[in-house]
Amino acid sequence: MINYPNGKKAKKVVPEEKISTRKNFNAANRGMALENDLNLSNEYYRDANLAIITKRPTPIKVVKVDYTNGPKIIEAFFEKQSTTDYNGVYKGRYIDFEAKSVAGKTRFPLANITSYQFKHLEEVIAHGGIAFFIIEFRGHDEVYLLDAKILLDAYYEKKKSLTYEEIKEKGFLVPRLLSPRLDYLPIVNTLYFTE
Amino acid sequence: MINYPNGKKAKKVVPEEKISTRKNFNAANRGMALENDLNLSNEYYRDANLAIITKRPTPIKVVKVDYTNGPKIIEAFFEKQSTTDYNGVYKGRYIDFEAKSVAGKTRFPLANITSYQFKHLEEVIAHGGIAFFIIEFRGHDEVYLLDAKILLDAYYEKKKSLTYEEIKEKGFLVPRLLSPRLDYLPIVNTLYFTE
After folding, report:
1. Which of A125, A175, B33, B86 is most buried by its number of CB atoms within 10 A?
2. Which residues from chain A sit within 8 angstroms of residue B60, using beta carbons?
3. What global pTM score does this model have?
4. Does A4 reach chain B within 8 Å, measured CB to CB?
């Protein structure tokens, strides 16, 4: 889940009526635009027969279900994704990535990634999979693909963040097109398939 | 989601009190035992550094969220998984499978698998991924691994089901161990990695 919803943010958007509909819930979530662009790009790749990459659903802990008219969940909570948002197959190989959108212009705080996600991507690499991050700087209207090892190194060096300049230097700018909206697959191809 | 919950089944289990807790919800779902065994087996494989295979969360359509005390979902609905339950990486390659549990002893009805899931697994194969089914016959207390192509062929031949004997013949019995509970990875290794 990009920019996982939290109480504070949502309250800003729906201050009076505390009960939000799906629409408000989405609007509250600025990172949803990145998620939407990636989902559309993945649909494009699927239709063009290039790769099968899917988004993992947001994990939700179901507490109460009303079965009166078919199952309707009446109490549930969002859970943190313990792995990453996206995975799939490209040229037989396993691909796994996390997408994050930040509002600021100067740095990407590592606190955006959980320790579970770092561990998961590290294991993916250990098993021969391809692991990276898609990072959007909304302040620059730019999206970068960054190999997971770069953020993993920063994580183990206990850095608090990577600067925009570091990501610009070590990452790859993802072209925004009409379709696919974020054309990251050619970068994956260059980075991981030309040995 | 194994044996996706539906109104009818659930009503049998919770006839008087129409509102069920998580506990009843699980108990209503006989296939959950298979899911649980697979999740534990995948944890074992992860800890043993053999493979990273995760379960996709059940997709849930969130309609209303109450933000009074942090986000609490108060109206939501189960959605059908448009892909499969499990995917991951083994020796660099992409693995994707669907797990199903049937109560009967004689046949596996293809209606257990959606056309989206057949399409998804077909695409996975086309992109060089490994695709199979894990099928439990509870009446026999047996679990089989069946290459996806076998069920895909039956699907395109418009068969209504595969018999227990066909699955016994064309599939591979998954050993039930103490740990991992369902040791399917050696079968994957033999079937897809010895060329």
Report:
1. B86
2. 57-58, 60, 62, 73, 76
3. 0.83
4. no
Contact assignment for A10 to B74 by CB distance below 8 Å: no
Q: State chain B's maximal CA–CA distance in angstroms.
A: 59
Q: Per-residue pLDDT tens for B136-151?
A: 999 999 999 999 999 9
The model's pLDDT over A76-115, given as tens digits with 9 standing for 90+, comes to 999 988 899 999 999 999 999 999 999 999 999 999 999 9
- Residue B120's nearest CA partner among B147, B102, B98 is B98
Distance CA B50, CA B91 (A): 8
Does residue B135 contact residue B102 with C-beta atoms inside 8 Å?
yes
ipTM given for this complex: 0.81
Euclidean distance between CA atoms A123 and A115, whole angstroms: 12
CB proximity A44 to B under 8 Å: no
Report chain B residues whose CB lies below 8 A from the CB of A87: 87-88
Domains and CATH numbers, chain B: 35-192 (3.40.1350.10)
Please check whether residue A144 is in contact with residue A135, taking contact to mean a CB–CB distance below 8 angstroms.
yes
A56/B51 CB distance under 8 A:
no
Measure CA of the first residue to CA of the last residue in chain A; give whole Å: 33
- Residues 6 or more apart in contact with residue A35 via CB below 8 angstroms: A1, A2, A55, A85, A99
